[in-house]
Design goal:
8-stranded parallel sheet, single chain, 13 helices
Length: 297
Protein backbone atom coordinates (compact mmCIF):
# COMPACT_ATOMS: atom_id res chain seq x y z
CA UNK A 1 0.00 0.00 0.00
CA UNK A 2 1.34 3.43 -0.99
CA UNK A 3 2.35 5.58 1.97
CA UNK A 4 0.34 8.79 2.12
CA UNK A 5 2.03 11.60 4.02
CA UNK A 6 3.22 15.14 3.49
CA UNK A 7 1.85 17.94 1.32
CA UNK A 8 -0.69 17.06 -1.38
CA UNK A 9 -1.73 20.11 -3.43
CA UNK A 10 -5.34 19.70 -4.54
CA UNK A 11 -5.07 20.66 -8.20
CA UNK A 12 -7.29 22.86 -10.30
CA UNK A 13 -8.74 21.64 -13.58
CA UNK A 14 -7.32 24.22 -16.03
CA UNK A 15 -9.65 25.48 -18.73
CA UNK A 16 -9.66 27.58 -21.87
CA UNK A 17 -11.76 30.71 -22.19
CA UNK A 18 -14.51 28.71 -23.88
CA UNK A 19 -14.83 26.48 -20.82
CA UNK A 20 -13.20 23.40 -22.34
CA UNK A 21 -10.64 21.58 -20.20
CA UNK A 22 -7.03 22.33 -21.06
CA UNK A 23 -5.66 18.80 -20.92
CA UNK A 24 -2.12 19.72 -22.00
CA UNK A 25 -2.08 22.38 -19.32
CA UNK A 26 -3.29 19.78 -16.81
CA UNK A 27 -0.34 17.54 -17.71
CA UNK A 28 2.12 20.44 -17.50
CA UNK A 29 0.78 21.45 -14.08
CA UNK A 30 1.25 17.89 -12.83
CA UNK A 31 4.87 17.98 -14.01
CA UNK A 32 5.38 21.24 -12.17
CA UNK A 33 4.20 19.76 -8.88
CA UNK A 34 6.24 16.60 -9.27
CA UNK A 35 9.29 18.85 -9.66
CA UNK A 36 8.41 20.71 -6.44
CA UNK A 37 8.95 17.51 -4.39
CA UNK A 38 5.45 17.48 -2.95
CA UNK A 39 4.31 14.38 -1.09
CA UNK A 40 1.67 13.71 -3.74
CA UNK A 41 -1.19 15.38 -5.58
CA UNK A 42 -4.96 15.27 -5.40
CA UNK A 43 -7.27 15.74 -8.39
CA UNK A 44 -11.04 16.01 -8.86
CA UNK A 45 -11.46 17.71 -5.50
CA UNK A 46 -13.42 20.85 -4.71
CA UNK A 47 -10.56 23.01 -5.97
CA UNK A 48 -10.67 20.95 -9.17
CA UNK A 49 -14.35 21.88 -9.61
CA UNK A 50 -15.48 18.25 -9.55
CA UNK A 51 -19.13 19.25 -9.29
CA UNK A 52 -18.76 21.31 -12.49
CA UNK A 53 -17.16 18.51 -14.51
CA UNK A 54 -18.98 15.87 -16.50
CA UNK A 55 -18.52 12.22 -15.62
CA UNK A 56 -16.48 11.79 -18.78
CA UNK A 57 -14.20 14.69 -17.83
CA UNK A 58 -13.67 13.31 -14.34
CA UNK A 59 -12.82 9.88 -15.76
CA UNK A 60 -10.45 11.41 -18.31
CA UNK A 61 -8.70 13.50 -15.63
CA UNK A 62 -7.96 10.32 -13.68
CA UNK A 63 -6.61 8.48 -16.72
CA UNK A 64 -4.39 11.41 -17.74
CA UNK A 65 -3.13 12.02 -14.21
CA UNK A 66 -2.25 8.36 -13.64
CA UNK A 67 -0.31 8.25 -16.91
CA UNK A 68 1.43 11.59 -16.28
CA UNK A 69 2.42 10.85 -12.70
CA UNK A 70 3.58 7.37 -13.77
CA UNK A 71 4.12 6.20 -10.20
CA UNK A 72 6.55 8.97 -9.26
CA UNK A 73 4.41 10.35 -6.44
CA UNK A 74 1.13 9.21 -4.89
CA UNK A 75 -2.08 10.28 -6.62
CA UNK A 76 -5.31 10.72 -4.66
CA UNK A 77 -8.52 11.03 -6.68
CA UNK A 78 -11.65 12.73 -5.42
CA UNK A 79 -14.54 10.32 -6.02
CA UNK A 80 -17.34 12.20 -4.29
CA UNK A 81 -20.90 12.00 -5.57
CA UNK A 82 -24.34 12.73 -4.22
CA UNK A 83 -25.45 9.10 -4.34
CA UNK A 84 -23.67 6.04 -3.02
CA UNK A 85 -24.03 4.27 -6.37
CA UNK A 86 -22.34 7.12 -8.23
CA UNK A 87 -19.57 7.35 -5.63
CA UNK A 88 -18.93 3.63 -6.08
CA UNK A 89 -18.69 4.12 -9.85
CA UNK A 90 -16.17 6.95 -9.52
CA UNK A 91 -14.14 5.07 -6.91
CA UNK A 92 -14.01 1.87 -8.96
CA UNK A 93 -12.88 3.85 -12.00
CA UNK A 94 -10.09 5.46 -9.96
CA UNK A 95 -8.92 2.07 -8.75
CA UNK A 96 -9.04 0.48 -12.20
CA UNK A 97 -7.15 3.42 -13.73
CA UNK A 98 -4.31 3.02 -11.20
CA UNK A 99 -4.83 5.78 -8.63
CA UNK A 100 -3.20 5.30 -5.23
CA UNK A 101 -6.15 6.35 -3.06
CA UNK A 102 -9.59 7.93 -3.20
CA UNK A 103 -10.91 10.98 -1.32
CA UNK A 104 -14.57 10.59 -0.37
CA UNK A 105 -16.94 13.06 1.23
CA UNK A 106 -20.49 12.35 2.36
CA UNK A 107 -23.49 13.32 0.27
CA UNK A 108 -23.41 17.11 0.05
CA UNK A 109 -27.06 17.93 -0.68
CA UNK A 110 -29.04 15.35 1.26
CA UNK A 111 -27.44 16.33 4.62
CA UNK A 112 -27.39 12.67 5.73
CA UNK A 113 -27.60 11.46 9.32
CA UNK A 114 -24.66 9.82 11.06
CA UNK A 115 -25.78 6.24 10.32
CA UNK A 116 -26.34 7.18 6.66
CA UNK A 117 -22.84 8.65 6.43
CA UNK A 118 -21.40 5.51 8.02
CA UNK A 119 -23.19 3.25 5.55
CA UNK A 120 -22.19 5.46 2.59
CA UNK A 121 -18.51 5.37 3.48
CA UNK A 122 -18.61 1.66 4.30
CA UNK A 123 -20.39 0.62 1.12
CA UNK A 124 -18.15 2.68 -1.16
CA UNK A 125 -14.95 1.53 0.55
CA UNK A 126 -15.96 -2.12 0.48
CA UNK A 127 -16.58 -1.94 -3.28
CA UNK A 128 -12.81 -1.54 -3.85
CA UNK A 129 -9.46 -2.44 -2.32
CA UNK A 130 -8.12 1.06 -2.86
CA UNK A 131 -7.21 3.03 0.31
CA UNK A 132 -9.97 5.51 1.14
CA UNK A 133 -9.48 8.90 2.75
CA UNK A 134 -12.84 10.00 4.09
CA UNK A 135 -13.50 13.70 4.29
CA UNK A 136 -15.26 15.90 6.84
CA UNK A 137 -16.09 19.37 5.54
CA UNK A 138 -19.25 20.85 7.09
CA UNK A 139 -18.84 24.08 5.14
CA UNK A 140 -19.41 22.41 1.78
CA UNK A 141 -21.44 19.34 2.73
CA UNK A 142 -23.63 20.88 5.41
CA UNK A 143 -22.81 18.10 7.89
CA UNK A 144 -20.12 18.02 10.56
CA UNK A 145 -19.43 14.31 10.89
CA UNK A 146 -19.03 13.24 14.50
CA UNK A 147 -15.73 12.01 15.80
CA UNK A 148 -17.44 8.79 16.86
CA UNK A 149 -18.66 8.03 13.32
CA UNK A 150 -15.24 8.76 11.82
CA UNK A 151 -13.50 6.47 14.30
CA UNK A 152 -16.12 3.73 14.02
CA UNK A 153 -16.04 3.47 10.24
CA UNK A 154 -12.25 3.63 10.27
CA UNK A 155 -12.18 0.82 12.83
CA UNK A 156 -14.72 -1.31 10.97
CA UNK A 157 -13.54 -0.93 7.36
CA UNK A 158 -9.98 -2.03 6.66
CA UNK A 159 -9.29 0.19 3.64
CA UNK A 160 -10.60 3.39 5.22
CA UNK A 161 -7.15 4.51 6.25
CA UNK A 162 -7.24 8.33 6.48
CA UNK A 163 -9.47 11.27 7.31
CA UNK A 164 -9.20 14.73 5.77
CA UNK A 165 -10.45 16.91 8.59
CA UNK A 166 -11.69 20.35 7.47
CA UNK A 167 -14.09 21.32 10.23
CA UNK A 168 -11.66 23.82 11.75
CA UNK A 169 -11.93 22.04 15.12
CA UNK A 170 -8.37 21.39 16.20
CA UNK A 171 -9.56 19.26 19.12
CA UNK A 172 -11.17 16.92 16.60
CA UNK A 173 -7.89 16.52 14.71
CA UNK A 174 -6.12 15.81 18.00
CA UNK A 175 -8.65 13.30 19.29
CA UNK A 176 -9.09 11.38 16.04
CA UNK A 177 -5.31 11.19 15.66
CA UNK A 178 -4.79 9.81 19.15
CA UNK A 179 -7.86 7.60 19.42
CA UNK A 180 -7.49 6.33 15.86
CA UNK A 181 -3.85 5.30 16.25
CA UNK A 182 -3.20 2.09 14.38
CA UNK A 183 -6.16 2.26 12.00
CA UNK A 184 -6.78 5.82 10.77
CA UNK A 185 -4.47 8.77 10.14
CA UNK A 186 -5.40 12.43 9.91
CA UNK A 187 -4.73 14.91 7.12
CA UNK A 188 -5.26 18.63 7.57
CA UNK A 189 -7.93 20.06 5.30
CA UNK A 190 -8.09 23.54 6.81
CA UNK A 191 -5.25 25.62 5.36
CA UNK A 192 -5.37 28.15 8.20
CA UNK A 193 -4.82 25.42 10.84
CA UNK A 194 -2.10 23.39 9.19
CA UNK A 195 0.76 23.88 11.63
CA UNK A 196 -1.59 23.33 14.54
CA UNK A 197 -2.79 20.12 12.85
CA UNK A 198 0.76 18.88 12.39
CA UNK A 199 1.53 19.63 16.04
CA UNK A 200 -1.37 17.46 17.24
CA UNK A 201 -0.39 14.57 14.99
CA UNK A 202 -1.67 15.07 11.43
CA UNK A 203 0.58 13.25 8.98
CA UNK A 204 -0.37 15.16 5.85
CA UNK A 205 -2.05 18.17 4.30
CA UNK A 206 -4.49 18.26 1.39
CA UNK A 207 -3.44 21.78 0.51
CA UNK A 208 -5.02 24.59 -1.49
CA UNK A 209 -2.16 26.97 -0.64
CA UNK A 210 0.27 24.30 -1.82
CA UNK A 211 -0.78 25.11 -5.37
CA UNK A 212 0.53 28.63 -5.02
CA UNK A 213 3.50 28.12 -2.69
CA UNK A 214 4.43 24.42 -2.88
CA UNK A 215 8.03 24.85 -1.75
CA UNK A 216 6.98 26.76 1.37
CA UNK A 217 4.28 24.20 2.11
CA UNK A 218 6.80 21.37 1.84
CA UNK A 219 9.31 23.30 3.96
CA UNK A 220 6.69 23.75 6.67
CA UNK A 221 5.93 20.02 6.76
CA UNK A 222 9.60 19.02 6.71
CA UNK A 223 10.46 21.50 9.45
CA UNK A 224 7.90 19.87 11.72
CA UNK A 225 9.13 16.39 10.81
CA UNK A 226 12.71 17.43 11.60
CA UNK A 227 11.72 19.01 14.92
CA UNK A 228 12.67 22.50 13.76
CA UNK A 229 9.64 24.28 15.14
CA UNK A 230 11.28 27.71 15.09
CA UNK A 231 11.58 27.50 11.31
CA UNK A 232 8.12 25.95 11.02
CA UNK A 233 6.61 28.99 12.71
CA UNK A 234 8.61 31.38 10.51
CA UNK A 235 7.36 29.59 7.38
CA UNK A 236 3.82 29.50 8.73
CA UNK A 237 3.92 33.24 9.36
CA UNK A 238 4.68 33.71 5.66
CA UNK A 239 2.02 31.25 4.49
CA UNK A 240 -0.80 32.15 6.85
CA UNK A 241 -2.00 35.36 5.15
CA UNK A 242 -2.39 33.40 1.91
CA UNK A 243 -4.14 30.57 3.76
CA UNK A 244 -6.52 33.04 5.41
CA UNK A 245 -7.30 34.63 2.04
CA UNK A 246 -8.09 31.24 0.51
CA UNK A 247 -10.22 30.09 3.43
CA UNK A 248 -12.14 33.34 3.83
CA UNK A 249 -12.63 34.53 0.27
CA UNK A 250 -15.25 32.11 -1.00
CA UNK A 251 -13.28 32.16 -4.26
CA UNK A 252 -10.52 29.63 -3.63
CA UNK A 253 -10.99 28.04 -7.06
CA UNK A 254 -10.68 31.36 -8.90
CA UNK A 255 -7.77 32.43 -6.69
CA UNK A 256 -5.76 29.31 -7.45
CA UNK A 257 -6.57 29.42 -11.17
CA UNK A 258 -5.47 33.04 -11.39
CA UNK A 259 -2.36 32.33 -9.30
CA UNK A 260 -1.37 29.55 -11.66
CA UNK A 261 -1.63 31.97 -14.57
CA UNK A 262 0.50 34.55 -12.73
CA UNK A 263 3.12 31.84 -12.22
CA UNK A 264 3.10 31.00 -15.94
CA UNK A 265 1.13 27.76 -15.55
CA UNK A 266 -2.27 26.66 -16.85
CA UNK A 267 -5.23 28.23 -15.10
CA UNK A 268 -8.05 29.80 -17.03
CA UNK A 269 -11.57 30.67 -15.93
CA UNK A 270 -13.74 28.69 -13.58
CA UNK A 271 -17.03 27.39 -14.85
CA UNK A 272 -20.02 29.57 -14.06
CA UNK A 273 -21.63 30.45 -11.76
CA UNK A 274 -18.13 31.16 -10.44
CA UNK A 275 -16.97 34.57 -11.63
CA UNK A 276 -13.40 35.98 -11.90
CA UNK A 277 -11.64 37.96 -9.19
CA UNK A 278 -12.48 41.62 -8.91
CA UNK A 279 -9.81 44.33 -8.93
CA UNK A 280 -9.42 44.35 -5.16
CA UNK A 281 -9.08 40.57 -4.97
CA UNK A 282 -6.61 40.58 -7.86
CA UNK A 283 -4.44 43.18 -6.12
CA UNK A 284 -4.57 41.24 -2.85
CA UNK A 285 -3.54 38.03 -4.60
CA UNK A 286 -0.65 39.72 -6.40
CA UNK A 287 0.63 41.07 -3.07
CA UNK A 288 0.28 37.70 -1.33
CA UNK A 289 2.17 35.90 -4.10
CA UNK A 290 4.94 38.47 -3.89
CA UNK A 291 5.17 37.98 -0.13
CA UNK A 292 5.40 34.17 -0.24
CA UNK A 293 7.99 34.29 -3.02
CA UNK A 294 10.22 36.90 -1.34
CA UNK A 295 13.00 35.25 0.63
CA UNK A 296 13.40 36.90 4.08
CA UNK A 297 16.73 38.60 4.70
Amino acid sequence: MTKLEGVFPVLITPMFDNGEVNWEGFKNNIEYFVAQNVGGITINGSTGEFVSLTKEERFKAVEIAVAQVNGRIPLIVGTAAETTADAIEFTKQAEEAGADAALLINSYYAHPKENEIYEHFKEVAESVKLPIMIYNNPFTSGVNISQETILQVGRDVENITHIKESSGEIRKVRDITRQGEGFIKTFCGADDLVLESFLVGATGWISVAGNIAPKLAVELYESVQNGNLDNAWLVYDRLLPLCNFLEGSGKYVQIVKRAMEIKGLAGGPARKPRLPLNEEEEAQLQELIKNVETVPQ
